[in-house]
Amino acid sequence: MRAGLEGKAVSRIELVRQGAPRLPAHASYTLITGILAREPLLTGSVAPLVNGAVEAFVRAAAIELPGRQRINAVSPTVFTESMDVHGDTFAGFDPVPVARAVNAHVRSVEGHRTGEILRVE
C-alpha cells in the first residue's frame, strides 16, 4: 500500500509542490488517475485509494496554486489498446482508445479550467 501511495500519489504531489514556485504564473499541470477512483475492483484497494488521493489533491491544489497556475487530472477507463493484457480485470468496462485520453490532456493543457477531473469513458 505504501509503495502505491508513494509511487503514484506522493510523486505527483511532489511534482506540483516543487514545481509551483519555479514555474511561470500560467503553468498547467495535468495528472492522470483512472476509473478505479470511482469503480473499485475486488482485491484492488490500493489503486482506488491512490487514484482517489490524486483526484482529491487536484481539487484542493487548484485553489492553492500561485498566480494563474492550473491543475487538472485525466481519468480514463481501460484503454482499447491494452485490452489483451487487462481485459479480464476490466470485464464489463467500456474501453476507450488512447487518442481520447490524449485529447483530454490537450483540453487540460490548452484550456482554462482548473481543479477538474476530465473523465474519459
Supply database-style keywords.
globular, single chain, about 120 residues, 3 strands, alpha/beta, three-stranded parallel beta sheet
Could you explain how this protein is built, in words?
The protein has 121 residues and is α/β, with parallel strands linked by helices. It has helices spanning 2-19, 46-61, 83-86, 98-110; strands spanning 28-32, 70-76, 116-120. The chain has a three-stranded parallel beta sheet, with helices on both faces. Helix 2 (46-61) links the parallel strand 1 (28-32) and strand 2. The chain is globular, with a radius of gyration of 15 Å. The model has no long low-confidence stretch (mean pLDDT 95).
Question: In summary, what is this structure?
Answer:
With 121 residues, the protein is an alpha/beta fold. Helix content is 42%, strand content 14%.
